[in-house]
Structure formats: C-alpha cells, structure tokens
## 1
Amino acid sequence: MEKVVLSERFYSLQGEGPFAGTPALFLRVLGCNLRCVWCDSPYTWDREGVSRYGTGEVDKGFAYSFRDFLDDAKKYDFFVITGGEPLLYSKIWEKWVRNIENDAIFQFETNGTFPPILKDDPRVHFVVSPKLKSSGNPDALKLDVLKAYLPLMEEGRAYLKFVVASPREDEGEIGALLDALKVPKRLRLLSVFVMPEGVEPTLPLAREVAEMALRNGWRYSDRLHVRLWGNLRGR
Ligand code: SF4
C-alpha cells in the first residue's frame, strides 16, 4: 500500500502566513529537493550539515498510510502538509485528498519547484515559498511553475511567502520576481508575504522586514511559533 514517509506529525498553531494562529495538524514529510542554508527543519534532509541549523542528524521517518490520513481527517479540520518538500509526494496526496469526503482545509507548504495539485478542490490551499539566492539555491526559482499558482492566488487559495535572510539583496530580487510573474498590485498587498528568517524568539530581522513590507506594499508575516516556543520540535 502507498505510504508517505513523515518526519513529524503534531498538533500546533500554524505560525506563519495567511493562516497564522490557526490550530492545525502538521504532517511534515521527510526529504527535500533543495538545500537552504537557513532551513529550520534540517532534520528532514541535512545529512551533510549544509544548513545553518543542520547537525547532520536526519530523522529516520515513519510510514504514514491512507488509513492514518482517514483517521486524522475524522479528528482534525485543518491540515498543514509541509516538509521537507511535501510535493515530492504529489501523486499520493492528490489521490488521498480526493478520497476524503469532508470539509477540512488542506494547506500545502511548498518551495515552488513543483506545480500545484488538486486545483479544482476548494479545500486545498498553497503557501508557496520561492527560494531566493540568499537561501543558497541559485537555481531554485522556476518561473513557469510559479506562474501556475497565479490563478489560485486570484481565487485566494495560494499565497507567496518569501523568507528574508538578507534584506538588502532579497528586497530587489522579490520585486523583480513579482514583476516577472506580473503579480497585480492588489495581490501583492494581500497574497505576498515577507517573513524574517530566524529561530530566535526575538526575530532580529523582524523590524527590517516589516519596513520592507511597508515600503513595497507587501504583507508581513511573523513567526508565531518561534515567538512562543523558539526552535522547539513539534511546535
Ligand atoms: S525548501 Fe524548505 S525544507 Fe527544503 S531546504 Fe529549503 S527551507 Fe528546508
């Protein structure tokens, strides 16, 4: 039977982006196709200690089946399907979500290198986090893939969320990318987030990123879970 390999499954508050503050069941898959230097979940992939927070320790993971998903769908109304990169398992999620009859919300957190799935299912939302040069992935931006999310942004079912690690460089790169994607101004205000990188509750970059949001008419995202619990796993 098909299974997804998870690194973590836990109940907490969504800490970032448009649904911040919402109680959610988190399903964090093991594995990622990118290698961000500031990745805050390196235990999903970082055997070499590439990321700033990497220790070289990678979770072994555990199998999660459709039966588990069905059981969870009876108990939870809001799923955050994250990683690692959850869309490494696109075909499985597509099948599983289609086979669940409920009105839960399924929010995928993706790095924007895989196209959207379940585009006709109003329960499905995406928070897409394209990786800028400061992530250490110089070729991670996939314009054609990101364009495929634009119709869902118009529907209020997809958002862009940029992790800002180097405000000076990132600001210009974000602006240029939004121009290249032809994201309308009103969507930049409602559906484009900038969020400070960091796992310290003080979030040292927060004010700088907030100023960036004000300057450009983008939306600021805090990191509620980091403010509340620091870098604690399962929160
Ligand atoms: S895309 Fe996400 S999970 Fe993958 S390395 Fe970057 S921050 Fe980590």
Note: The mean pLDDT is 96.
## 2
Amino acid sequence: MISIWEKETFFAPQDVVIVGSGFVGLWSAYHIMKKHPRARVTILDRGLIPTGASTRNAGFACFGSLSELVADAAAMGTDKMLSILEMRFKGLERIQKVFPKKEIDFELCGGYELYDANANAGLLADQMAYINALIKPITRLKKTFQPDDSAIRRFGFGGTRFIVRNNLEGALHSGKLVRALLRLVQSMGAQVLTGIGVTGFDTVNGRIELQLDKAIALTASSILLCTNAFTKELAPELDIVPARGQVLLTSPVAGLPVTGTFHAEEGYYYFRNLGSRILLGGARHKAFASEETMDMSTSETIQAHLQAYLDEVILPGYRGMYTIDHRWSGIMAMGSEKSPIVRELSPGVYCAVRMSGMGVALAPVVSREIARSLL
Ligand SMILES: Cc1cc2nc3c(=O)[nH]c(=O)nc-3n(C[C@H](O)[C@H](O)[C@H](O)COP(=O)(O)OP(=O)(O)OC[C@H]3O[C@@H](n4cnc5c(N)ncnc54)[C@H](O)[C@@H]3O)c2cc1C
C-alpha cells in the first residue's frame, strides 16, 4: 500500500497523464505546460528511460529524401505527401528554436541520397524538377534537391552512379535531445515517473482510472497515449504495425572522408558519420516480415545486409581497417498509411501515435496539435 504522503503528491489526481516518454510524449508535455503552466501533468513510462524508438534511432534531422518523396506522392497523392513534409519541415525548425544546437549536437551538415547503377539520369532529373517545384512553397528554395555527383568521388562510395544533395538536412544526438526535453518539461512543472507500465484504463464518473503494473492508483481528467509501436496493447483497434529498425556503428575509421547524412533505396538504407565512425541503419526491406516485431534484439540476416552495404558502398576502400563496435535496434510504428494518428479515441482518451519512422521531425508538430485539442 502507498502512504498518504505518496498518495497526496506523486499519485494525486492529475489533469493529464501522458503514457510514453519518447519524443511525442515529451513534446506533448512541453506544449501542454506552455499553454497551461498550472496543469497537473504526469508522464509515465514503463522503461527506466524512454525505451522505444526515440533513444534508439539514427539521429537524422530530415524531412525526406527525393526518392522517398517521389514514392510517397505516388502512394498517397501529392496533398498528403506535402502535408507530412510540411509537418516535418516545421518540426525541424521548432527543435532548433527550442534547443541550442550545442545542447543536442545539432548540425546542419546537409543530406545526400545515393543512386545505384540502375538509376536513369533523365528520370532522376525529371523527378528532381517535379519535387523541387512542388515543395518550393514549403522550403522556400527553388532547388531543394540538387545533383552533386562529385560527392561520389569525394566520399569514395562504391556502386553509386548519382548523388542528390539537400542542404536543409542535418543530424542530432537523439539521447541528448530526449534528455534535454526531459529536463525542460520537468523544469516547467511536469512530473515524470519511469518504471511504471500502463496495462489498461477505465472511465469512472467522467474520470480516467489507469490500471498500472504496480500497486498504485492514479486518475486523470484526460490521458494521452504516446506509445507509438506499442499502442496496440492499449488500443487494439488502431492500424499500427511494429517495424524494427536495426543499426550498427563502426569503430573510428582513420581518414574517414564521409560527413553528413545519407539515404539510399527510398530511405531503406540510411547512414551518417558520428565523428570518425559510420552509423548505418535499415535494410528492413530485405526481410519485412521478420522485422514486424517488438523484440529489441538484432538479427543476423539484417546485420549481414548492413555489413555488405558498408563494405561495398560506404567504405569499399577501408576493408579490414575498422570493426563493428555497436549493434542495436528500436521499434517504429507503421500502418497502411504513413500519416500519424492524432485524435480523441473516446471521451478523455487521446492518442498521438504511428510516427512511421519520422518522429524526430514530426513529434514537435503533432504534439502541438494534440495538446490544443486536449485542454
Ligand atoms: C533505427 C531507427 C532509426 C530511425 N531514424 C529516424 C530518423 O532518422 N529520423 C526520424 O525522424 N525518425 C527516425 N526514427 C523514428 C523515430 O525514432 C520515431 O518515430 C520516434 O522516436 C517515435 O517517438 P514516440 O515518442 O512516438 O515513440 P517511442 O520513442 O517509441 O516512445 C514510446 C514510449 O512509450 C513507452 N511505453 C509503451 N507502452 C507503454 C505502456 N503500456 N506503459 C508505459 N509506457 C509505455 C515506451 O517505453 C517508450 O518509451 C527511427 C527509428 C528507429 C528505430
């Protein structure tokens, strides 16, 4: 049993309980506290630290590569593609407004996309002109994407025919961003409790009673699910499919010429430099079915694809000169559509979930939208 002191402080009735302390949960707390500084807001997370995607991603501050935007326009239509792109663009602006670059290692290093021998020069030029014209009102640039084939030699890539550059993209330190957000929302008055899992909830007399995996009672006027890939455990009706993303990190590579963030194959491969090391992730398209999992281990199949890509494309001239120092995975949320689910599910129960692998940039914007409708 909890004590009266605990009941009247940590577990007192709340205005809002946010479930999940990843980017979306933390940005939501930020927007709620900014608008309602006296609100009683608690963020619960079942991990000791946020344990989903936010601290386990690749740290790209990106709004989409050329081939990704072309594929999105074809799959969901230009209006939806542009609306997501605008959210991501604004999200990246917001991150830079709220946090000093140094605090989160934000670097506007530029983004590049690699095209292999199968790419067609004419088609690529048409796609660039088409997407540049479409997105000009958002990026305010005539040519967001530009050819930069000289980068192939500069970076020493193998199996690469063309490179498209985008000056607006950058990289950041995801751990530092989560930590900075945690400190910020706590300084604004939100309470963060970790190691507490939510297993369900009921509405009783107009208030939400949370069921927790600890012998604690907690109620709130509203709850907000920011549980991304794990949301089906609490709201099984939502169209969410978990998608594991795997990453590897090399040891320092002496004389590494690669700097920036890079995409290939519609964003299914992504890599960047982290100092003089290469952080590489992706290859999920090589084994979609086995990666539809919430298991945060790594698999030999995907890691072998990543290693082959590293050897053949990124560092062909450096074989035997580095080792793989780290491997990890995180879980993203996908679905039949790429747009996030941001809405009230039932009276007092809200969600901001399904970030489709774009949450670094989307979180500051979707959280603002849900915070507005919540209070
Ligand atoms: C390998 C990888 C690379 C990526 N690269 C990029 C990128 O370059 N750019 C980009 O924009 N995005 C990228 N992403 C995606 C991005 O990281 C996610 O979209 C974003 O972190 C999602 O944030 P979130 O807050 O919605 O979810 P999460 O960060 O997953 O947070 C959900 C939280 O909810 C908690 N939780 C779940 N269920 C419960 C429960 N029942 N009770 C209590 N707590 C619960 C979890 O512990 C977790 O902390 C990548 C993801 C991965 C895995």
Note: The chain has nine helices and 18 strands.
